Every structure is written in C-alpha cells, then in structure tokens.
C-alpha cells in the first residue's frame, strides 16, 4: 500500500479493495467513494449485481488508466444455486415463471459440472446491463420485450460443488416462499465455488446448469471473494473508508498503481532510457512481451509493449 506523510491522496492515486454489501449497486458505491474522498476520478473495475456482495475493486485518480488490467483478472465466487426453481432474471430479483419442479440429487449436479468447466459459450441473461439496439437489456426485459443476446466465450477455470441441502419452497400468487410442511416442494440448494474469467455471468451459469439437468435453477446468493490480488478478507467497508478519510489516513487503504500489473515482467531503465521513454519514444531493447518499467529508485515509470524487437510506450506513467 502507498503512504504519504500527511495522509492525503498520493498524486498517482491507487486502487481500493471495497466491500460491497447486498442491495447496493456498483455505481452507488463509486458515487459514495467520490463524495467521501473528494476525488471525482473514481471508477469500478467490473460491476457486481445489487443482490451480490463482496470484493469491488475501485481505481482512484490516475490509476483509472490501469483499470483494464483489473477487468481482465480472474475472479472467484461462492454461489448458492436453487435447483427446481426458475426466474426470468436467473436470480431472486424476479418471481418464478412456474411452480417448482422436482429437484435433482446432489450427485446429478456434480456430474453436470465438467460440461461447464473450461472454455464455454455462454448466453448472457436477459436481465443484464448489456446494450441491445442502444438500450440496456434489463430495461427491455422489464418492459416485457424479447431480448436476444448472442453467446460469448468465457472460461470457467474451476467449478466445484462444496455443499448441498434441501429447502422447502412454494409459489403463492406468483411469489416464491420458503418454509416447510404440507404442500411445500423441496428444492436443492447447492453451494458452488467458481473461478472464472472476466465477462462470466454466474446467474447464466446457474440457469444453464438447471437446463442441463432438466429441473431449472436460479441464483439464490452470490459472494465475490477475489479479483486478482484483491481478496474478501482484506476488503474495506464503507464506514471504515469514511473514517479513514475523515481522520487523514485514507492513503493507507490504497494499493499502489502497479499492483495490478505485477504479473508482467519488470525492468529497470537507465537514466537515458528513462528520459526517452518519458518522451514517448521507442527503446531499442530486445523484448518478447510487455514489461512494466521502473527507474533506479524503484519508481513506476509505465508499461511498454513489444514491437519488432523493441519497446514502444503503452502507458507513460511519469513523463520526462
């Protein structure tokens, strides 16, 4: 993490690992952080649905230039999937489309998981923020209009069943209720641990698992536990952030800008190369892949791409 002597915002900004609670949208969190720290240049690095909670990395100040690297990082989730119940939004934001169906045994869920592991084609849910004809898909879906979203390729690196149990459900006047007794169905509530690429919809994964098994399914609950180097255990709640800003130690909550590119190889530039790079000029140095660059004192200078055996500036962090 970065620190300054007066506890104020470092000039390079940084990243905050924010804990997003249930019922709050990602853009609402961004707005609250902007007001709290008095910095307009704040952006989230990948949304989290209002009904989900967990890790929401935010880029602050100049570090928003590196947000794309966080978006590309793998993400880890703990999901609760309700098998035997279907909803239009693929989660509990909307009501069931029909009466509960007979739920599968846990073994059937476990046997279906390999087909959804690795590189797969996934159709985003109709209730998503993707645009169709310039309109957000969820707006069209809520208005009762048909939404046709093309599938896209995602990568499910790990998909594991970690728990399973029965839960009583019924639909009364179109609404889903939970309980037990005569007239109640018994859905299967399964806990899944998932590691996936950016762009994966866990709601769509729940829907597709239910379709594959033949009973239908919807997302019951979702926690994002990791995005790259940002983990749930180290996440900062909003009240903690507000106290830190008020008491003058907000800077201690910031991750350094180059934290999100630490997976790239690093190189130290000479004084002459540092000046050339700072002016945006190509460096005649052999390189086979992108690098993060530093000066002799360890200051982050930016990122260089490899082109024709040379380094071309991609992001110049500290101009000459």
Topology:
Elements: E1 14-20, H1 26-37, E2 42-44, E3 53-60, H2 67-71, E4 75-83, H3 106-112, E5 118-122, E6 131-132, E7 135-136, H4 137-142, E8 152-172, E9 175-179, E10 185-196, H5 202-213, E11 217-227, E12 230-231, H6 238-247, E13 266-268, H7 271-278, E14 291-294, E15 300-307, E16 310-316
Parallel strand pairs: 3-11, 13-14
Antiparallel strand pairs: 1-3, 2-3, 4-10, 4-11, 5-8, 6-7, 8-9, 8-10, 11-12, 14-15, 15-16
Helix pairs in contact: 1-6
Describe this structure in words.
With 320 residues, this protein is α+β, with helices and mostly antiparallel strands. Helices cover 19% and strands 34% of the residues. It has helices spanning 26-37, 67-71, 106-112, 137-142, 202-213, 238-247, 271-278; strands at residues 14-20, 42-44, 53-60, 75-83, 118-122, 131-132, 135-136, 152-172, 175-179, 185-196, 217-227, 230-231, 266-268, 291-294, 300-307, 310-316. The strands form three sheets. Strands 1, 2, 3, 4, 5, 8, 9, 10, 11 and 12 form a ten-stranded mixed beta sheet that branches. It has a four-stranded mixed beta sheet with strand order 13-14-15-16, with helices on one face. Strands 6-7 form a two-stranded antiparallel ribbon. A hairpin with an 8-residue loop joins strand 2 and strand 3 (53-60). Helix 1 (26-37) runs parallel beside helix 6 (238-247). It is elongated and about 80 Å long. Mean pLDDT is 90; it is low at 1-7.
